[in-house]
Amino acid sequence: MTLVRFFAAAEEAVGAPELRVAASDLSDLRKTLNAAHPALAPILPRCSVLVDGARTNDDEPLADDAVVDVLPPFAGG
Fold first, then answer.
1. Residue segments in the chain with a per-residue pLDDT below the cut of 50
2. d(CA 40, CA 54)
3. Do 10 and 74 touch, CB atoms closer than 8 A?
4. 24-29: which pairs have CB atoms within 8 A and are 24 or more residues apart?
5. pTM above 0.90, yes or no
């Protein structure tokens, strides 16, 4: 299962800093997360999603040991 780490508003929407999720690719992962955590649905499209620290296509297969980071937009100064 893929380790998914959530930050800021995404963590608040899910209610946990990380989850293990079974998904074949990022598209499947997005669908699974939206179904399991409806509060995440409006946030996820605006998030950067990194697989093992890099951006990837939604149809790229996810390895079982992959780490996915869900990063909402951050503001700072």
1. 77
2. 21
3. no
4. 24/61, 24/62, 25/58, 25/59, 25/60, 25/61, 25/62, 26/51, 26/56, 26/57, 26/58, 26/59, 26/60, 26/62, 26/68, 27/58, 27/59, 28/62, 29/2, 29/4, 29/62, 29/68
5. yes
